[in-house]
């Protein structure tokens, strides 16, 4: 909550609070969906392993039953010690009591043969060839307990028909020497592999190592593309993911039926796993989708019912100075929430009051400016009148000391000229030093100096000064020039005002002879330097005045 309060806007705080509600629920939904998916996946995997085990058990039952039939037939034949005809009769009777076993063939060490066939395509010659081949291969290891014969299981195609081979022969420690072959119709074994409880895409097969199928279900016998790329035989029922030989990804399971190379192989089409994944997606993302829609709806509601009106008030508050100086008013709408509406009304009232105050203030400022301009005009005119009056008095023959009147007239002229340059219709403005000083120096040169004296100036500055600092500068020039021209035997006075490299202005008044330091009133000059904010520099013997100031 503290982090939410650090956010700057109403929108961000409301959305952050909504996020604090939405995110935990979304995370909880994903966690619960994941737990459910893991549980279902484990159940599917356990079911697949159990299916593999069931098929292995079914295959063992079928093979063990056929093997027991062979052993019982051998035992019966051995017991009667009859002729070949008697032996064949026993074999025939054995086949009569079982189904889908088209042939049985037994050969003893004395070359006595017992056989029986239910199909014309089968005969003793074929069976003996099968026996010779099977007898050379590796026998099945014991399943459990004591085995009664060496056994092999295989398959063969005769006249385009697939048969399952059960081959058996006596153990080495048996006195009676014999070998037997029984053929089983593959449909019998396939019927034991009933896939009724599995999905249509499931394939099951009894395999020999080397990817040789004995029987298959749900796929053509010679189609090996469904098998995993890498053969993998497990003694215990196992399920794993692998890529098939044709490139698809599937779940495979297998278990060894009989050592060394007989095993059951299943391929699951993965529909249950896909269904579990789809269930996970639905369980995980349905709540998230609902929360996102809720979040967007909430955000839209915030925008339409809160932020829209607050933004309008904010826009109105920021509009000051635009639209001709008038500030916009916030929109008042009946659809606005009452609390925001009251804020908008209070804002508009404040704006109107502020506009009225600004208008009154502008009127007062305009009146004040008018009075100020009028005052400045009157001051300027008064100074010009005083200057004219002093000039008339100085030129009058009755004047006892015209020099003093000349200095007074020059000082009044400084004031008058400064105000004339500074005063404008909009108020007082800074004045260029060079323009102001050139006029002051020209007037002083015309009024103060004697006929045998001359005044030179070097005004090289672009600086400007306000009237409050300009007047002390002008008065300082009057004082310095007057003091310099009063010196005995002085021939000229030089005035220099130059911009220096350190952004200061150097101001200097000097004569052609040594200057009397007492010729100028130190107190007056001190006061003028303070008003000008000038630094008084160490002056040479010919310098009347040497200052430095920053514009």
Question: Summarize this, please?
Answer:
Strand 4 and strand 5 (178-185) form a beta hairpin. This protein has helices at 2-5, 10-80, 84-96, 124-136, 186-192, 271-318, 338-395, 402-422, 433-447, 467-485, 522-532; strands spanning 103-108, 113-117, 150-158, 161-169, 178-185, 203-208, 212-217, 238-243, 249-258, 262-268, 423-424, 427-428, 431-432, 454-460, 464-465, 492-499, 505-511, 534-536, 543-549. The chain is rod-shaped and about 180 Å long.
Task: Give a description of the structure.
With 551 residues, the chain is an alpha+beta fold. The chain has three domains: 260 residues, no CATH class; 111 residues, no CATH class; 120 residues, Heat Shock Protein 90 (2-Layer Sandwich). Helix content is 51%, strand content 20%. It is built from eleven helices and 19 strands. The strands form five sheets. Strands 2-1-5-4-3 form a five-stranded antiparallel beta sheet. A hairpin with a 2-residue loop joins strand 3 and strand 4. Helix 7 runs antiparallel to helix 8, helix 8 runs antiparallel to helix 9 and helix 10 packs antiparallel against helix 11. The radius of gyration is 61 Å and the shape is rod-shaped. The protein starts with a helix and ends with a strand. The mean pLDDT is 81.
From the structure above, extract its key features.
551 residues; 5-stranded antiparallel beta sheet; alpha+beta; Heat Shock Protein 90; 51% helix; 3 domains
